TrEMBL record, chain A:
Organism: Pedobacter gandavensis
Domain 4Fe-4S ferredoxin-type: 296-326
Protein's recorded name: Iron-sulfur cluster-binding protein
Highest taxon in the source lineage: Bacteria
Lineage: Bacteria, Pseudomonadati, Bacteroidota, Sphingobacteriia, Sphingobacteriales
Signal peptide: none
Pfam families assigned to the protein according to its UniProt record, in alphabetical order: Fer4_8, LUD_dom, LutB_C
Database matches in PROSITE patterns: 4FE4S_FER_1 (PS00198), 4FE4S_FER_2 (PS51379)
From TrEMBL, chain B:
Species: Pedobacter gandavensis
Pfam families in UniProt: LUD_dom
Name of the protein this chain belongs to: Lactate utilization protein B/C
Matches recorded under SUPFAM superfamilies: NagB/RpiA/CoA transferase-like
Residue ranges occupied by any LUD domain in the UniProt entry: 95-192
Amino acid sequence: MSTGIKDHAALSDIFNQDEARVDWHDETLWFVRAKRDKAANTLSEWEALRENASQIKDHVLSNLHDYLSEFESNAQKNGITIHWAADALEHNQIVHEILKAKEITRMVKSKSMLTEECHLNEYLQKNGIEVIDTDLGERIVQLAEEPPSHIVLPCIHKKKEEIGELFHEHLGTPKGASDPQLLTAAARVHLREKFLTRRAAITGVNFAIAETGEFVVCTNEGNADMGAHLSEVHIACMGIEKIIPKRANLSVFLRLLARSATGQPITTYSSHFRRPREGQEMHLILVDNGRTQQLGRADFRNALKCIRCGACMNTCPVYRRSGGHSYHTAIAGPIGAILAPNLDMKQYADLPFASTLCGSCTNVCPVKINIHEQLYKWRQVIVKEGYADPKKAIAMKAMEFTLSNPSVYRNAGKAGRWVMKNIPFLVNNKLNAWYNQRDMPTPPQQSFREWYKKNNNE
Amino acid sequence: MSSREEILARVKKNQPPLTVLPADLTALIQYPNPMEMFGIVLDGIGGTMYPVKDYEEMIGLIKTQFSNLPRVISTIPELKELTEKNWEGQDPHSYENVDVAIIEAHFGVAENAALWFTESLMGQRVIPFICQQLVVVVHKKDILSNMQEAYQQIADSSYGFGAFIAGPSKTADIEQSLVLGAHGPKNMTVFVLA
């Protein structure tokens, strides 16, 4: 999907044209959030787990150099080939080289937000390699030629009737069929054939353990395992921040991840890959792509603690009512809005403003990232660096001038009240961005200052 | 400089001052009857638990539940009479038509109904994922309360591949409607041996 130069507000307007769909989207995600609360409440140690996970991740970031080296050397001892990629392009080239060496032109891929971030599919397709996404939600958006709109629920924006239509066109299901059971069964048959015939599989990585050199992949469908265990070549792609120190630390993260994501007690499959299968090649790519830069930004580094559960999206009043595509980046929602400006402050200058700063994201984050505080801080950095929307910048400048000059402030207030009373169409029109979603209030007769002067008899 | 050296150098330069790795949590959830809790949670995620007193009782149940299915395989010696012989060691793709796979778990966990397997118990890595129905055998004494106990049990054991499996393969990607059997097993039956 090309979003051109449209920002979050403009893209949200498109999503908001269908009010019934917005309500449905909002309610569906809130339902997932409510399941998260229920799951969290089954454990009296929930808050202790969050604090523990947060501290483990803080520690990892403070010792990342040594943990990366330790992981690399242990993984190599296990027979895993380790690659390092400075950016998205190098990551994509490494994947392509591995496939070229084995003369592989068709492959399966399970969910990996990193490969979305790197636009791997587009790169490989341009180089003549077919990639089939095997997560059901990802396959659906792939057939629709759209990016995922949510990191855990990739096609949460789609109605079952639309999916039925796509499947009718691509998989030959009966026209008009939209029963999720029937559609899933059709996808099962369609994708099983891919698993059985493709020689290479890509997976993401949820956790990589420095102590043992193994990595863990979590899915509900089993698609990562179907791909990996049937392939000659398994390529796992991970951001460098996915390291954890010890295997025992997994207990904390596996208790938090699925409960935060969907309210399940754990994902169906938590697969620990330590050595390649006999006769199989196993590659792992460690990707920077802006992460080391973010590590150096003291105010923003702890966004690197994210375990990609999506809880902040499900709870966010702005995400729920604007949809994932309005964020025009691989990772939508509050966490995406603090990760994206690190990569490109200009392109993503709008995202930290797509928030009410209500703090609900921070409250549900399983690793206690201060998401709403970072949104607020990014706004300041973006305005200071000159990347703010010009309309917003001018309004801010005018506000600053008015608020720092008492006499200007008094006169502006008077003028405003007079205009709203006598010539309301001057402000009640489309040029006033504030008026777009709101009715202007009835102007008061006097300001507080005037009232106080009149009524204060001291 | 290679990307490896560049990345490591940037990490070293940008990482914050060292903080301590926190100690493991204590006083985590304990269930008075872990097996009972395991059964409740398993039911909630689409699986079924049967407590059985011995293999004989289990074999009877397997015969009634999975009769008429052509391809049943197992890694458990006690179940030899029910299953295909010499199925191990083939190309993993050849298990595509396995109807039922019966494998043993090292242990189960009550808080999430997850069971821990390493590849030595699977026969082949792909088995518990590619079969149409998965049957698991676990001993009652091996049902733990929580995941911390689980990793204490796993400790520093060596395996090439290991997995927690909790219930059948599932998806809710279409309008949050839960469907069992996304790619892998459509159901999961757990026999708990007294």
